[in-house]
Amino acid sequence: MTTISLNEVDNRVQGRLALVTGASGGIGSGCAKGLAADGCDVALHYSSSKDKAEALASELKAQYPTQLFATISADLTSRDATRGLVSSLLALPDVAAKHKAVSILVANAGLGRRIRDIQDIEEMDWDDIMEVNARSQFVVTKAALQGMRQQGWGRVILVGSIASHGGGINGCHYAASKGALCSMGKNLATVLAAEGITVNIVSPAMIGATGMIPTPKSRTWTKGTDIDALKEQDPGLGIAASVPIHRLGIPEEVASVVSMDSTGSPGTPPCQRCIEEKRECVLATSRRGGRRVRKKKNLGEAEASAAGGGSGTAIAAGPLQTPVRQTSARDGHGMDAWPHGGAAQHQDPSWTGDGSASRTDASQSASRRSSVALEGHLASADLLNPSDALDLLAQVADLEPGNHDKESMPARTANSRQAPRDTNLRYPPISDGALGFADAAALIQHYHENFHPFFPIVYKSIFDGHISEWIEKEPHVLTAVLTVASKEEPSWQRAHEACSRHMESLLSPLIYGGVTTVGAVEALLILAEWAPQPPHEISSIGCGKEDYGAWMLVGVAIRLGYLQRMEQTGLQDPPESPSESFSRKKIAWAACYMSDRQVSIRLGKGFWSRGPGPASNLRAVDFPSLQSQQLGPDNMGLLFQAQLELTQLFSNAHDILYSSTSHREQLYVGGEYVRYIDDFAAVLRKWKMTWGSFSFTPHVKASLILSYDFLRLYINAFAFQATMNRAAAKTRKANKSHTTGPLFADLAAAPDARFIYESIDAANSLLSILNSFIDPVAGLKYMPLKYSLFVIYAAVFLFKACLYNLFATPNEGITGVRRAILGTIAQLQKTSSSTQSIGHRYARSLRLLWRKRSSKRGQKHDNSQAAQPAPNIPPEQSLPGPQEGFDSGLQGGIGLDALNGFSWRDLDSLGQYISNDASIHTTDGVLTTPEFDSEHSTNAVDALPVDFAYQNMWNGGDIIF
Q1: How far apart are CA 709 and CA 773, in angstroms?
Q2: Which DSSP state fits 548?
Q3: Cis peptide leading into 420, omega within 30 of 0?
Q4: So where are the chain's domains?
Q5: Does residue 562 carry a pLDDT above 80?
Q6: Looking at 356-514, which runs of residues are DSSP E strands?
Q7: Residue 35 has pLDDT above 50, yes or no
Q8: Is the pLDDT of residue 627 over 70?
Q9: Tens of pLDDT along 293-312?
Q10: Alpha helix stretches (DSSP H) within 804-837
Q11: Which of 6, 376, 385, 745 falls 20 to 30 Å from 446 in CA-CA distance?
Q12: Pairing assessment for the beta strands 314-319 and 69-73 based on DSSP bridges
């Protein structure tokens, strides 16, 4: 049985591509301007008026510099030109770089010939009108719908005419063409609605400035004048006089209807006029209902009355004021309510009495009711800690009459005179000019499409509505989204710096004040996942510093979660119909758990919270708000469940295998880890079989595979370390200062060979997925930092494996690894044009690491200069320095230990190892070229001349792997 779910409201047009046909003037020009004001990228179609179209594009570019405006020519009387209109538009370089489909189509182009009498209408007139007004609109609509269907979202607005109903000033041929267009629209509206595509028809009447109605020669006429006679003398004036409001319509009025049909949210502020005039859009409450009796109301009734929604009209107040909206406290979504300010929240709008007796009576009445409620709460509340007691004392203090009087003073002041509040004055990135409202909307859309699928914790309503709304309601998560969305785009550098500064200013109150909002927790987790860093704190090489910042951000997020008792969402059984507030907290707490485990494992640190994690196996159905979100084939609820299950496996592997040094050494000696690794391998295979069959977008699925392969590497590498530690213990027991041969002379004969081979396969698989299946520009660039680090860990692991000669055919194995490493370096570099980006810095680390390996090979070739031979066996565990068996006279030698200077799981020690070579300069420009040769020649690394020495002899000490 097929289950069909209700579609979510998605009326966001910011950043989408709109095509307006016939946009060089009239209604088309007005529609283009309206859509541009809504934040759309607009394609302006013209047939012959090239100058007008390009002038309009230039005007819009100057007004909205961050948006895209393109002109496209097509003669709609030519069938070939009509067929190629949409494909030619999407092939334009600027358009192709940002869009894959036309999301909004305004089919406005039309042909009108004012021939009223059928006897005067020639067959050619009929054919021309039908070709342009009906057939060409069908062809263009059909072409645009292909992309709309693929993305599951589209808006089609067909510009018809009242002539389709028999009116108008044109003949029957024009009426028939518009009638055909309107009938087509009605049919498509029902057919396409289930696919997320709406079709609307706008039927203008007498619109001036379109070329169809002459400009009136005069503006006055005598009452009682025969209108038909007036039409003969002054056609423009006669037609305008026949309109009930005694004027012609203007294109902007039609454009406002088109804009409403494209956003699909009539009656919701802000309206088009307020957007264009940069004014606040406020819905006035209804005054209907008869005589108002001035009677006293208790506080509870007043709050309910003020919070209740009413019908009303949009009124323009002051420039860029914030829309005023209240949400009833009874809906249980206090987090979604606007900040309370003004008297509207405390008294009924119709009640104008403000005498002191009335206020006192209301306050005392509210105080008595609150006292009774508090007494019951005191009797039933659990006092588990001092904080609970302090909360109760604060509630008692709030009952003092003086407090109520003080609270009412600002309410009366705000009620008597409310000064307009400029939203952007309270949001520095906008008030400083680094970002505009349209820019912010475009960045939010960019985040939703490219970043959100990998870590879908942002409250879904953030992606709807106007920016000013979320500046007031969710400043933390909004700023975090803007910071991450702008971090890798050079064109957004100024906006990114402004958002980063503002985010830093928001972090201090979180730490010192303990702001208890879910949005603050979400914001911290977003920053931890993508780890944008201020330019002055960026090092020249990647050495894991981002993870330290992420670890701290996750820690603060968890503490804020505890302050809001979010952990209870993972322990309690959810209600039958969970509120939006409960669902949002549940997602945020599960995300805290995942982020904490992931970053702590990468750093080798203890978890910020060992519990409570999810007390039961959470599934996609436990996150209904995520299940309702669809981005192409991606079901956010299923994706979240897959990530949660994998994180639980990560956590279990860490606790069982890597929990402490003493525990690891116990496992090395006892060998119990073999059973654990086998059990984990079985569960991992089950996870892969379960989730491998699900259909996700390629890059989202690739991220899951990267996590799977890294966990496979993390688990099986434990056996690698165990084998080396047992060899070290065996040597110490035999009292040998040096080994007599390679540690892995015959790897296949080693007891843990299958685990070692599995770890090498997992590392190779990580690099292969990155190099073969992930587009660095369209995929890796937007993935959370951890996925790039998974690949870095794998590359360092393979570097160490090469030094151990763990390949069945060493020459071929090492050659293949080097080829994969160079491919990885190239992929990382392509993620950004900035040499200080995360991709470039970690590419530089890998390059310098393999330069050291190449230098080692060169020195082994030149071993006649060394005091001792350098057999291919593991080195000792010791810091550089004079030791027995070490030739301190090697030219250029700095005593670095290739295997014991760092662990493959410790990027900080890797960075110290790389930078601790005076002959290598991390800013020497070796990585400034973004491309390598297409074949990734194996000589590319070996040819790098670096002169330093390794300590290649092992004296039986412990081995750091």
Answers
A1: 14
A2: H
A3: no
A4: 17-211+250-266, 214-247, 278-287+298-416, 423-687, 743-942
A5: yes
A6: none
A7: yes
A8: yes
A9: 444 444 344 333 333 333 33
A10: 810-829
A11: 6
A12: unpaired
Strands (E), 544-700: 630-631, 634-635
How far is residue 655's CA from residue 197's CA, in Å, rounded to a whole number? Answer: 50
What values do phi and psi take at 157, rounded to 5? -120, 115
Distance (Å, rounded) from C-alpha 495 to C-alpha 6? Answer: 37
C-beta separation of 130 from 181 below 8 A: no
- Which of 296, 309, 312, 398 has the alpha carbon at shortest distance from 347? 296
For the beta carbon of residue 958, count every other beta carbon within 10 angstroms: 16
pLDDT-based confidence at residue 664 (cuts at 50, 70, 90) = confident
Distance of CA 398 to the CA centre of its chain: 41
Name the residue type at position 148.
M
Report which of 442, 440, 443 is spatially closest to residue 429, judged by C-alpha positions. 440
Task: Tell me the mean pLDDT in the region 784-798.
Answer: 90
Q: What is the pLDDT of residue 81?
A: 92
Tell me the C-alpha distance between 368 and 138, whole Å: 69
Would you state the CATH architecture of domain 17-211+250-266?
Answer: 3-Layer(aba) Sandwich (3.40)
- Pick from 365, 335, 372, 351: which is nearest to 415 by CA? 351
Mean pLDDT score, 345-354: 36
* pLDDT of 327 strictly over 50: no
Total residues belonging to the chain: 961
How far does CA 524 lie from the centroid of its chain?
Answer: 14
Do 609 and 566 form a contact (C-beta atoms < 8 A)? no
Cross-strand pairs, 41 = 17
Q: Are 146 and 102 in contact (CB under 8 A)?
A: no
pLDDT at 43: 96
Closest CA to 396 of 381, 412, 411: 381
Beta bridge partners of 17: 41
What tokens does 763 get? 């590392």
Whether the bond between 235 and the residue before it is cis, its omega within 30 degrees of 0, is no
Tell me the torsion sign for CA atoms 72, 73, 76, 82: negative
Quick one: pLDDT at residue 744? 60
User: Using CA atoms, how far apart are residues 759 and 687, in angstroms rounded to an integer?
Assistant: 18
Q: Which two tokens stand for residue 636?
A: 């956010």
pLDDT at 579 (0 to 100): 82
Question: 352: which 2 tokens?
Answer: 């104008």
105, amino acid identity: L
Question: Positive or negative, the Cα torsion across 933, 937, 943, 944?
Answer: positive
H or E stretch covering 303: helix 299-307
Out of 84-98, 244-258, 550-564, pick the least confident. Answer: 244-258
Q: Is residue 174 annotated as a catalytic residue, yes or no? A: yes
Using omega within 30 degrees of 0 as the cis cutoff, is the peptide bond preceding 270 cis?
Answer: yes
pLDDT band of residue 195 (cuts 50, 70, 90) is: confident
- Residue in 46, 174, 787, 793 annotated catalytic: 174
Instruction: Indicate the residue type of 524.
Output: L
Confidence of residue 499 (pLDDT cuts 50, 70, 90): very high
Q: Does position 505 have pLDDT exceeding 80, yes or no?
A: yes
Q: What is the mean pLDDT of residues 593-615?
A: 75
pLDDT, tens only, 714-742: 999 998 888 877 777 776 676 655 555 55
Q: Are 949 and 890 in contact (CB under 8 A)?
A: yes
Question: Does the predicted TM-score (pTM) go above 0.85?
Answer: no
**630: phi then psi, degrees, rounded to nearest 5:** -125, 125
Q: Are 46 and 22 in contact (CB under 8 A)?
A: yes
Average pLDDT for residues 836-850, to the nearest whole number? 84
Determine the distance from the C-alpha atom of residue 505 to the mean position of all C-alpha atoms in its chain, rounded to a whole number. Answer: 22
Q: In terms of DSSP bridges, do strands 104-107 and 17-20 run parallel, antiparallel, or are they unpaired?
A: parallel
Q: pLDDT above 90 covers what percent of the chain?
A: 24
Rounded Cα distance between 186 and 221, Å, is: 40
Looking at residue 417, its amino acid is: R
Of residues 859, 839, 853, the one with CA closest to residue 914:
853
> Mean pLDDT in the chain?
72
Q: CA-CA distances (angstroms) from residue 2 to 5, 632, 808?
A: 10, 19, 52
